[in-house]
């Protein structure tokens, strides 16, 4: 069990660092109150988790440890619901209802679509 926890923790560490770097780079690349950094990290993370689970469903392609490292660890650390929720609360407090609705609806719709497309991509190989 300790081995599995360390594997997940290592993936989470790498995912969290990658999230910080990618989100920061994206957000600094655009001047907008819209949280593009968190948005794109979450959509890419959704695609990746769909891809990783799709690959693991193919059987024999990845070990259980690698699946846990990539999905629970890396993708769990890479994506962030808490930041998403906090950014939405900020929009509501500021009266930015358009950005709130846009961010929430696009995140949910595109997140689901990205998981589906990631999973679908594994079936096309």
Explain what you see.
The structure is a single chain. The protein is an all-alpha fold and 125 residues long. The chain contains 5 helices and no strands. The radius of gyration is 16 Å and the shape is globular. The protein has one domain. Helices cover 84% and strands 0% of the residues.
Average pLDDT, all residues: 95
Q: Residue ranges: pLDDT <50 for 5 or more in a row?
A: none
Tell me the series of helices and strands, N- to C-terminal: HHHHH
Main beta sheet: none
Helix content: over 70%
Structural class comes to mainly alpha
Cα-atom radius of gyration: 16 Å
Number of helices: 5
Amino- and carboxy-terminal Cα gap: 34 Å
The 3D shape can be described as globular
Percent strand equals: under 5%
Number of domains: 1
Count the beta strands.
0
Subcellular location: Cell membrane
Main location: membrane
Function: Fluoride-specific ion channel. Important for reducing fluoride concentration in the cell, thus reducing its toxicity.
InterPro entries: FluC (IPR003691)
Q: Which helices and strands, and how do they pair?
A:
Layout: H1 2-29, H2 36-57, H3 64-78, H4 81-93, H5 97-123
């Amino acid at each position: 069990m300790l081995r599995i926890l360390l594997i997940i923790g290592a993936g989470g560490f790498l995912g969290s660092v990658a999230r910080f770097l990618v989100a920061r780079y994206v957000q600094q690349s655009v001047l907008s109150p819209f949280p593009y950094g968190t948005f794109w990290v979450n959509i890419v993370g959704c695609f990746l988790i769909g891809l990783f689970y799709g690959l693991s469903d193919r059987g024999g392609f990845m070990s259980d440890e690698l699946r846990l490292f990539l999905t629970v660890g890396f993708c769990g650390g890479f994506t962030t619901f808490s930041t998403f929720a906090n950014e939405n609360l900020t929009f509501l407090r500021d009266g930015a209802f358009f950005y709130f609705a846009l961010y929430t609806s696009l995140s949910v719709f595109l997140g689901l679509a990205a998981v589906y497309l990631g999973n679908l991509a594994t079936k096309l190989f």
